[in-house]
Please model this.
Amino acid sequence: MRIFVTGATGFIGSRVVSTLLARGHQVTGLVRSEEAARQLTDKGATAQRGTLEDPQAWVAGIEHCDAVIHTAFDHDFSRFVENCEKDRRVIRAIGSVLQGSQRPLLITSGTGMGDNGDGQPALEKYFNPAHPNPRVASELEGNQLLDSGIDVRVVRLPQVHNTERQGLISYYIPLAREKGVAAYIGEGENAWCAAHVDDVAELYVKVLEQGKRGERYHAVAEESITSRLIAETVATGLGIPAVSLKPEQAAEHFGWFAAFATIDLRASGEWTRQQLGWQPQGPGLIADLSKMDYSAQS
Model:
């Protein structure tokens, strides 16, 4: 198949491209710079220059592809709401090219979209269109495209990690270094789910090859890792204390990150594994946090 991949040299997208090429697929990847284009062509893929800010300038490149995997996202979380709306516009633009065809579009969301508020792990079968997380915009736009007849499939991400990056925790680490403490709220029982980046890339390709129209899939290898355990592991790596804060201290201590530090992001990936035969093999989040070079993060 000829696959168009956005974010083709990004943390996740670059691994998706490598996995697709290893499976014998042809890949065209969206890149922002000449250097990124060279990285892509060196792998054996084709580069399409463009930005998320102006999707109309590059979506025509999708016309000759058999499917689209949309992994690109602007990870400036200080502008999270704006960037989620930008993602909605990109999805809409991609959909305009796929209208009237059976070509799949894989979009990316977060596992939190599967949380129904009952205190249990988020599930693939659930979607709350009124979810307060701005990332809901991506799935709302995906639903619009589904209603118009497009084959949309959703990959929901947890904290995606290796020894260099760990999702939202990559923003937590420099904050802990700056503050001199690795903080958690209360008893630190709120927990996050996670998966190794190579396993996540494998899942995207499985969703492409085996997934079904309208389904949501959770890239969850570990369902529940407490914020206290994360904080204690980071504290050890940085050589600083791990401390508990009261909920009312969160905003002052964490700033924009407070909204993430205080929520529970447990999620299940059991249904996904059953449906696609996805078997995560990579190291766990705590193992990667324990092995990373914290001096390189300064």
User: Anything to note?
Assistant: The longest helix spans residues 80-98. The two ends are 42 Å apart (CA to CA). DSSP finds eleven helices and twelve strands in the chain. The chain has a mean pLDDT of 96.
